[in-house]
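Input record (Table S2, row 250):
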Amino acid sequence: MKDQKVVVITGGSRGIGAATAKLFAQNGYAVCINYHSNRTAADQVKQSIRDAGGECLTVQADVSNSSDVERLFDQVDQKWGALTVLVNNAGILRTQSRFDGISEARFLDVLRTNVMSSFLCSQQAIKRMSQSLGGKGGSIVNVSSKAAQTGSPNEYIDYAASKGAMDSMTRGLAMEVAADGIRVNAVRPGLIYTDMHASGGEADRVDRLKSNIPLQRGGQAIEIAEAILWLASEKSSFVTGTFIDASGGL
Ligand code: NAP
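Output record (NAP complex):
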């Protein structure tokens, strides 16, 4: 479709990604929701977008795997033939642990899922967006974490390190592709109510820690989605290589 805005959201089936998918659809984007294994959740997001009159495609792909990532972007090419925005949102954390309890396999798994995914997806996006390659430019938004700055001691230093790597990649890539019409920015959420904390072994972690947050509450996924949308959109057209800390003041 001519001039259709198209967004790919990795990990769009649940949490922050799902809220982002719905918000982009409300703002006129055709939305590709990537998911890893929870097809039911992805289908529910797709249905709610379609019920509201939006366009949506769901694609199962492990975004830490290069051939899956190629297949994901090929499907978007076939469906819409354009790409305006990539949101690198898919991410995992593992059970809370001290540093000496983190295995080599676990650390590599977290790095692959949280960092290699952004590397692989951004490479595919740049090929399609880059003005020097005939593209129309575009915007990449990385979903990092305040953990990149706190380091997450006693919980998940592997996860924090993966988000630190994402921040460095955000800055470097932004400088490298700016002249090709591509902006690269990131959001660093704080404590947000999603399923992710259950993966760390403490489903009610946000409630335990919320009194430490200056705004005295945990965040909602939609509050992160709004920051992602702004960074992706033309409203932030002079912004690149930067970060929004959406963390209630932490
Ligand atoms: P979530 O509710 O646990 O959702 C994770 C999403 O990532 C799901 O859609 C999941 O797909 C997908 N995913 C996981 N591994 C994947 C893979 N290998 N390939 C493709 N998709 C994959 O997490 P969330 O809290 O919304 O987190 C989203 C992002 O925000 C993450 O990058 C996270 O690090 C960041 N963040 C979250 C918080 C927070 O407090 N929640 C704070 C700071 C940063 P399935 O549904 O198929 O499993």
